[in-house]
Amino acid sequence: MDRARLLAAYERMVLIRRVEERVAVLYRDGLVPGFVHTSVGQEACAVGALVHARASDVITSTHRGHGHVLAKGLPPRQMLAELMARETGACHGRGGSMHVADPGLGIFGANGIVGAGLPIALGAAHALRRRGAGDAVIAFFGDGAVATGAFHEAMNVAALWRLPLVFFCENNRFSEFSRAEDQHPVPVRERAGAYGMAFVELAGNDVEAVADGMRQVLDQARAGDGPVLVESVTTRVRGHYEGDEQRYRERSDLDDATARDPLLVTRARLLGLGVPAADVERAERRAEADVEDAEKFARESPEPAPADAAEYVYAPRRRARPDQAAVPAGGTRADGTRSAAAAGGASSAGTPPEGAGSRPSSGSRILRQAMRDALAADPLVFLAGIDVAGGNVFGLTRGLAGEFPDRVLDTPIAETAIMGLGVGAAMAGLRPVVELMYLDFLGVCLDQIMNQAAKLRFMTGGAVTVPMVVRTQFGSGRSSGSQHSQSLETLFAHIPGLTVVMPSFGDDAYGLLRTAIEDDNPVVFIENRLLYERKWAMPADDHRVPLGKARVVRPGTDVTIVSWSRMVFEALAAAETLSTEGIDAEVLDLRTIVPLDREAVLASLARTNRLVVAHEAVVDFGVGAEIAALAVNEGFWSLDAPVRRVGAAYTPAPYAPSLERRWEAGAADIVQAVREVTAC
């Protein structure tokens, strides 16, 4: 670097150091809540890594990310205001120390989960490459993250796809309280070789060395030569968190850290190059003045208003066209076109008219057509997942890769990477539809859905939207066993920020999937594989179904049966049986679990005064319990009998057909529950 650029880098390092020192004092005095992890001693890594970065480049960061975001250009005012939980902070006080972000500056967020930013960096890098401007992603992580599955999955996909991504490891030689040599059997450099990835080692306490090395690394990434793993060996001066007394460290190690202080190294070099001491001191004073100004700004800023506590959980829903779903079952609109219900809904007698309409198609073909139409309508949409280019395990995406070769992407078996790909790409402006092959596999990638996709809009104070769809499927009744049969919608429904969709009829599957892809929130779209071969009319390509709107698929007067997904058909079959006994059951198909159409449930209950909830999931602690609570609270004065829930027994799904038949619920169980409530 020339002297002017080196002096500017030094000033930025001093700014970071002074901010961190001030944060430590504010934290001690109770003005910074929560947890704080400072980056004192690691300033040369953050600044050096980004000297040659563009404003349009993207970074992902760690729980120790203050230096990264300041080096990328976040103003100190917004930084300190955020840490002090003020409305003027970068995230309006919703993120805090471990989640500072400003996507407008290419800062896709610090992250409280070790390694979690790496899969998100995949999606950002994919989006940047699609944009074609030669931009790159720098994903910061600590040496402790190399032990995580997220690290390995991200490295593998990045190398396979040759993404413009720099994995920047700040090796401060401690994973929380443990020495790196006690945590990892091989050095970081050998991780790169395992994926055929280029490796560069940098002297992390020398900002000039880091900057010079990163210039070449970024040139390689921008040129399309694939990702690079960078190890920058540095020093963590303070503890893992503020308050950590570091009793696990030797005194000699701490003394060495002080001797290798990157600020002292850079200051001495500037003076050695002939930069006047007065210029160096002016840079230091400017940095210190910026910190004073930032603290004053933060102290004088208001806290977020308690009345706004629920802000930023969801992006605004797009305004739907006149609601096709509002047409009565089997009816037609004023313009004479068919309604959704007429095309494939339930008849007034309660039997779904499979094959209705002029183009009978299977549920799987209808879903495929919805994805095809979405790809054709919007170049920002892409599909990704395990074997999706080959059609997926059920053939739902068959043929789409031939028509959209650059937007139907096979991935390795790496569910965390797949979900992170979706999150990062959505943050960068694309509309990913990522596939989780089986709903049961949720456990291996839950962090990216629960802690990233669902929370990022909230934690950034509304600065980002995450318009991604997670398509998955489930279904019991075919001896798929305990790990391939679970109905887990309750887990998603309990996570604020997610939208959860579970269609039953073919027209709803099409309309809800198109709406989900066009929505600006993360949507989990759960299909039932036992409905893939049922037949319905193919909806028109303009067909949409609004999220959060249930529909009555069979009107009735004596009892309401609320259900969703495949259990709707069990409810309809039960209603037919009950009609022979003189009991007129109304069947309400929720269609979406979140948002829950509470008004529709209460309106139906007001008409019938009795309620049964039927779902494929186990009864205990499920969505049915939430609906029962709704009935006995808001709907209490409509109830003439106890609420009954019908579902699977509270055990894992059995394999043996005889056990599975006993375990799962069906029409006969619904009939019995209705008999009980109507006898009251």
From TrEMBL:
Cofactors needed by this protein, per the record, are:
thiamine diphosphate
Please state every residue range assigned to the domain named Transketolase-like pyrimidine-binding: 361-534
Keyword Oxidoreductase assigned to the entry: answer is yes
Superkingdom, natural source:
Bacteria
* Enzyme Commission no: 2.3.1.61
Q: Does the keyword Oxidoreductase apply?
A: yes
| InterPro entries reported in the protein's UniProt record | DH_E1, THDP-binding, Transketo_C/PFOR_II, Transketolase-like_Pyr-bd, Transketolase_C
**UniProt-recorded Gene Ontology molecular function terms:** dihydrolipoyllysine-residue succinyltransferase activity; magnesium ion binding; oxoglutarate dehydrogenase (succinyl-transferring) activity
The record's listing under SUPFAM superfamilies reads: Thiamin diphosphate-binding fold (THDP-binding) (SSF52518), TK C-terminal domain-like (SSF52922)
- PANTHER family membership: PYRUVATE DEHYDROGENASE E1 COMPONENT BETA SUBUNIT, PYRUVATE DEHYDROGENASE E1 COMPONENT SUBUNIT BETA
Q: What is this protein called?
A: dihydrolipoyllysine-residue succinyltransferase
**Organism listed in the record:** Frankia nepalensis
